[in-house]
Structure to design on (96 residues):
């Protein structure tokens, strides 16, 4: 008995699944969509939801912009490291 996956096709044991995104009711592009709170008959993409003129009065927007906090980078004193490396090389040249 051979089991087959419910969606997609299998080639050499690897299952390929095709994901279809819904069409945005505002711009018409195929993107991930959610149902609009003010207009339940519409499915909106994140770009159209954020740019909506009624967003200020919407009690529960479908999409929220999320901000990621940048990781703090540790600043190294690159000049100091380069200067130390040059001094070390000069000492080797003078000593050799």
């Amino acid at each position: 008995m051979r089991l087959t996956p419910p969606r997609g096709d299998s080639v050499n044991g690897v299952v390929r699944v095709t994901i279809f995104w819904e069409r945005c009711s505002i711009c018409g592009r195929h993107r991930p969509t959610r149902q609009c709170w003010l207009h339940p008959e519409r499915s909106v993409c994140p770009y159209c939801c954020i740019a909506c003129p009624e967003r200020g009065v919407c009690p529960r927007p479908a999409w929220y912009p999320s901000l990621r906090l940048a990781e703090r980078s540790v600043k190294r004193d690159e000049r100091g490291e380069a200067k130390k490396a040059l001094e070390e090389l000069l000492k080797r040249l003078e000593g050799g």
User: Anything to note?
Assistant: The longest strand covers residues 9-11. The beta strands are 9-11, 14-16, 34-35, 43-44. Confidence is low (pLDDT under 50) at residues 1-7.
